[in-house]
Amino acid sequence: MTSPRVLPRTLVVRLDSAGDVLLAGPAVRAAADGSSYTALLCGPQGAQAGRLLPGVDEVLTYDAPWVGLEPAPVSRAKTCQLLDTLSARRFDRALVLVSYHQSPLPIALLLKLAGVGWTAADSEDYPGSLLDLRHRRLPHRHEALAALDLARDAGFALPPGDDGALRIEAPPDTTHLTGPEPYVVLHPGAAVPARAWSPARAARAAAALAAEGYRVVITGGRAERNLTAKVAGQYALDLGGATDLRQLAGVLAGARVAVTGNTGPAHLAAAVGTPVVSLFAPVVPAERWAPYGVPHVLLGDQDAPCAQSRARHCPLPGHPCLDGIGDAEVLAAVAALDEDRAEPDAEPPREGGGSETERGATV
């Protein structure tokens, strides 16, 4: 008699922002389908998003000192605490998900010290014995697909019927916040200022949308309430600071279209199936970070001098790549996506294409 297959206990690591965690969602679902227990290790900025992902049994949080816009100081005590937490859970496997410009090796070392039996990651750097599967991502790969490639080559596959789109658990009904009438969301903020409109430009867009007949809802976090109030003015409903991430998902799910920069709410909108007008500054490549798996229109000068610079603050006077977008362009993009809203959803990009993989750690 054949013994039943014993599924591994798996840890998926994604240590940076909420948007990055949302893009990891399809890879997380693949890992969960092939695991008896799936935990997600996030940074503090991504933990809320991690709790929204299907397939996650537990979210662990670690503020890694090599990640983020304001990295935490190195702490022996917090590092030892992480090792104790991971050791107690006896993970068999780990997938370390990183962006194309990040190294997985610091956390891979800690995973080995915590007794994780097998670890896989994309790595351009020689990993020594830190990785059991050194994976090489395909060039120009979208972040969501790159993560799926790694999961697949680590032995995990999406369950039957899973189309690989971004997804979260069902968001709440937020009609009590938005009102019942149709609306468009304008999210003016971003953690990286170079990736958002200036406040004055966002306010003009809200006024233009309202003049065109759209009911406009402005969203933002608690720290962005001054921004959202300025942008909303007399033209829009200001929900700045009124939602946590799960409630924001509900607001976005109810929207006809979302207008936002390259920031977490763009990926949250995609995860609830809402079309996105993407105000995309070229400081990072759109081919890797554009809204995934939903209809979207990309606006912004992708050939601006700041392209691929990863600048956090626009180095050019007047923020021309985004503030140079005209109201007519915005209105046309919203109208096109709103018109298509009644059409069948566009299929997400396919997984295929393979990947270059190196088994073990030798080079």
UniProtKB/TrEMBL annotation:
Region ranges (Disordered): 338-363
InterPro entries: Glyco_trans_9, LPS_LOS_Heptosyltrfase
Keywords of this entry: Glycosyltransferase, Transferase
CDD domains attached to this UniProt entry: GT9_LPS_heptosyltransferase
A Pfam family per the record: Glyco_transf_9
PANTHER family: LIPOPOLYSACCHARIDE 1,2-N-ACETYLGLUCOSAMINETRANSFERASE-RELATED (PTHR30160:SF1), TETRAACYLDISACCHARIDE 4'-KINASE-RELATED (PTHR30160)
Protein name: Glycosyltransferase family 9 protein
Organism: Streptomyces xiangluensis
